[in-house]
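QA checklist item 7 of 12: single-chain prediction sanity check.
[x] sequence parsed
[x] length recorded as 341
[x] structure emitted
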Amino acid sequence: MMLKRLIALGGTLAFFGLAGGPAAAQGNLVVYCGVQEEWCQLMVNEFQKATGITVSMTRKSSGEIFAQVKAEAQNPQGDIWWGGTGDPHLQAAEEDLTEPYESPNLPLLRDWAIEQHKISGGKTVGIYSGALGFGYNTELLEAGVEPPACWADLVKPEFEGEVQVANPNSSGTAYTLLASVVQIMGEEKAFEWLKALDKNINQYTKSGAAPAQAVARGETTIGIAFLHDVVTPIITSDAPVVAVAPCEGTGYEIGSASIIKGAKNPDNAKKFYDWALTADAQKLAAQAASFQLPSNKDAPLPEKAPDINSIKLIDYDFAKFGSSEERTRLLSKWDAEIGAN
């Protein structure tokens, strides 16, 4: 895949017809944001500049946002849920926690982003994509130990106490791992592998990106995360980390956006949704050192993003593993067989 070079942000104000000067006050918006804090804040700042809408933002992991939206269903406090893995967005759609919306910018998107919109009944949309994998710290890898290249390698005894991954109840990244290995290995063998992996885990983190950050800081040898999170510290701080796309194949996420049902500021939520689908808004990811594949066909690919074409991706069944029944069942099984230990 030939990667385009990033260009400076432009056109965002023109998109709203506001290029002539500062935007006048246009009301409020509450955003629940599921990506990294820096990206969340940059999105909020640029949207406020473009529209004059005052934004209140809360950043949490995908599973935490889903739980909050569900808990607030009778009295919604948020207007739009932007970012985070698509599976909990799909569950929220199925449980009628989000609203259908047909953005005029849907035709600008890649097929996988539009498919996410279709299978949710119009209640969510793809905003970025990224493949799952892991990273290892070359300085912590013991002499003579073969570097891990496959999922199977992570359960080897030489990596006892040297692996981090997030908890799938709070983290969309970790749920993607759970759903991916079930699809790759079959459920019985996948849970055998997860139990073996548990013996090598030193910490189940809340955030899906945290294991990649811990690897970069030298706190653990291996961290399971989306590959765009693994490469971030390599790019930004020259961390001694190698990113690995597992040899057996791997799953991927479709980061999504959804308007919360009963939102108090629905018109402003739609404005944010529309804006977030534009190429100008999606360029902001790389400025915040986030290197996912953007859903807008005209958004330039970050120059140092993982090459999705070189990764062996499985045919991830988003409809099944994003369903309320399957997601709840798998998480309950993980809690009973692994999390309770």
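[x] summary fact logged: DSSP finds 14 helices and eleven strands in the chain.
[ ] second reviewer sign-off
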